[in-house]
Write a structure and sequence with these properties.
By secondary structure, this protein is α+β, with helices and mostly antiparallel strands. It contains 9 helices and 11 strands. Strands 7-9-8-10-11 form a 5-stranded mixed sheet, with helices on both faces. Strands 1-2-3-4 form a 4-stranded antiparallel sheet, with no helix packed on it. The longest helix has 15 residues. It starts with a helix and ends with a helix.
């Protein structure tokens, strides 16, 4: 039973290896839950533990961006998001915390490591887009670059080869990031053209790993200035509305 539970949880959550040892910053009263998890799922990567808004539960933030809720005594556990309904509004507590984490991580990324398409005029906001050069919807989004820029949206590309590192798509993206003019190289690849193969010191692998860390599962994956994750393609007008323009 223990092995079956471990397999199910690991499969559902795609947990990253590692365990953060119980420390002073973990809330008092969570010891039994953490000990139970450590015995049952020794490779569970826990980044933070806080008291959940649901009485009697603790919120566990995992290194892969997933969320778990567990009871104080460690007998019950569920994955997913917790919502509150009050004053005619629905609030997703877990997603709010994930957005804060995404914003913190994204703010740490150097703009020089990205391929940036900026408006000619005023930049009203920006989106960070984890992109693949071979995906059809990434290409569709790129076709609307002029419209996005005209709306005042700066687009910051981060590399996310969907097939993983060491694949042909990965090599294409590396070549684009290493090109003399990465913007032109990205545009060429997204138009179905070939570009010269190049290698250099590049951030492609680290950006791919960052995408996995913040919950990217496909491309394009759009992260707003405030850390919200908008998975999938959006037409320019719809994206502008989503970012408050």
């Amino acid at each position: 039973m223990k092995q079956a539970l471990t397999a199910i949880v690991l499969t559902l959550l795609s947990v990253s290896p590692g365990w953060a040892e119980p420390a002073d910053h973990y809330p008092k009263g969570s010891e039994a839950l953490l000990q139970q998890l450590k015995q049952t799922i020794p490779n569970l990567g826990i980044e933070a533990v806080t008291e959940a808004e649901l009485p009697g539960f603790y919120l566990l933030e995992l290194s892969n961006g997933q969320t778990l809720y567990g009871t104080k005594e460690g007998k019950h556990l569920f994955s997913g998001d917790l919502f509150s309904i009050a004053n005619g509004q629905i609030v997703n507590y877990a997603e709010n915390r994930r957005a804060m984490k995404r914003k913190r991580l994204m703010d740490m990324q150097p703009a020089d490591d990205m391929v940036v398409f900026s408006p000619a005029g005023q930049t009203k906001t920006y989106v960070s887009v984890f992109t693949d050069v071979d995906c059809s919807y990434c290409r569709k989004l790129h076709q609307e670059m002029a419209e996005l820029n005209a709306l005042g949206i700066e687009v910051r590309y981060l590399a996310y080869p969907r097939g993983g590192l060491g694949t042909p798509t990965y090599a294409k993206i590396v070549s684009a990031w290493c090109a003399e003019n990465p913007n032109d190289a990205i545009t060429a690849l997204k138009s179905g053209l070939n570009i010269p193969s190049k290698e250099c010191s590049n951030p492609v692998a680290s950006q791919y790993q960052l995408g996995q860390q913040i919950g990217v599962t496909g491309t394009p994956a759009i992260v707003t200035e405030d850390g919200r994750l908008l998975p999938g393609y959006m037409p320019a007008a719809q994206l502008a509305q989503a970012v408050g323009l």
